[in-house]
Amino acid sequence: MRARRTPEPYLWLLFSGGGVVAALLLPVLVLIFGVLAPLGVIEPPPAARVRALLDPLLVRLALAAVVGLCLFHAAHRIRFTVEEMTRGGRLDVVLAPLCYGAALTGTVIAVLVLF
Amino acid sequence: MITLQVSRYRPGQDAEPVFQDYEVPLRSDWAVLDGLAHIKDHLDGTLSFRWSCRMGICGSCGMTVNGEPRLTCGTFLTDYGEGPIRVEPLRGFPVIRDLVVDIDDVLAKLAHVKPWLIREGEELPLTAEYTQTPAQLEAYKQYSMCINCMLCYSACPVYALEPDFLGPAAIALAQRYNLDSRDQGDRFDLLATDEGVWGCTFVGECTSACPKHVDPAEAIQRYKLTAALTSVRNLLPWGRS
């Protein structure tokens, strides 16, 4: 018997990839741009420099990947946390498209902003 | 003395499980199982529970002790201070009587994952010897420590919600053979399903509950990676096996 086709392996790859990215890169980005710079602990980089930093295609692609993977990671987590807390596997039909749809929308917005 | 609040269910007599209190001696060397044996021997011979080895090897005496899945032979009365200690059957399983639960479902799942060494093109009986390096032994040894006590199933919220879920011990058992250098079997079709590894949401309670440090949660996550990469490879036109 062949295993039934299921989208779970691909969703899980996005989730686990997002987990790695969220654990390794997100804290640094949040610390620099969300905490230290606004508090004035470090000199906030001038807008022109940030824009120059984003100029290479590779940087923008990497940033889009970081945002997208983190969003899919969150979507996966929220989907299963809500389902387990509401004991509602039946909710999955609505919840899964909603969660991953939101992640996809966020990724598209990130791409639109970056490019 | 310490109070044991023991869940009783006598089919034909109780409509649903009820608690009955027993006073047992509080001795520093007594486990909860010794308390139950004291009840059976001296206070109430009608109490039913499973046990065998009294030393954490047979996996028979798993019960819910103060809400946690525990081996009662390794859970000491003195760990609970003044008490009382509440002893219930393993959660997530149908109760047959008192503290005895129906484990047929898990036994069937353990057998379902082909828990034996699969060799290609060899006639039975197998006569060749296959030596292993210490590193090859180490690759699966941890997963071979499982005693089938089913505490992990009792702790797993997914199993409670989805009775079809293959579950922690069965997947760890499959990994015990997948990671064995002597095994040539392919368990992808058994494991890479919605009821298999994809049913797991990595709550991790199975690993917390495991008295033998098997770490079923790790086994499942590791197989998820294997299964995901195999699924991607199967999608590629040149990768189909």
Automatic annotation (TrEMBL), chain A:
UniProt keyword terms in alphabetical order: Cell membrane, Membrane, Transmembrane, Transmembrane helix
One Pfam family here: Fumarate_red_D
TM spans (from-to): 12-37, 57-74, 94-114
Protein's UniProt keywords contain Endoplasmic reticulum: no
Gene3D superfamilies xref list: Fumarate reductase/succinate dehydrogenase, transmembrane subunit
GO process terms (BP): fumarate metabolic process
Assigned GO CC terms: membrane
Name assigned to this protein: Fumarate reductase subunit D
Organism (species): Thermocatellispora tengchongensis
Taxonomic lineage of the native organism: Bacteria, Bacillati, Actinomycetota, Actinomycetes, Streptosporangiales
TrEMBL record, chain B:
Pathway given in the UniProt record: Carbohydrate metabolism; tricarboxylic acid cycle
Gene3D superfamilies tied to this protein: 3.10.20.30, Alpha-helical ferredoxin
Cofactor: [4Fe-4S] cluster; [3Fe-4S] cluster; [2Fe-2S] cluster
EC top class named in words: oxidoreductase
Cofactor-binding details, from the entry: Binds 1 [4Fe-4S] cluster.
GO molecular function, one term: metal ion binding
Organism: Thermocatellispora tengchongensis
CDD domains documented for this protein: fer2
Family from the record: Belongs to the succinate dehydrogenase/fumarate reductase iron-sulfur protein family.
Residue ranges occupied by any 4Fe-4S ferredoxin-type domain in the UniProt entry: 137-166
Name assigned to this protein: Fumarate reductase iron-sulfur subunit
Catalytic activity line of the entry: a menaquinone + succinate = a menaquinol + fumarate
Gene Ontology terms: biological process: respiratory electron transport chain; tricarboxylic acid cycle
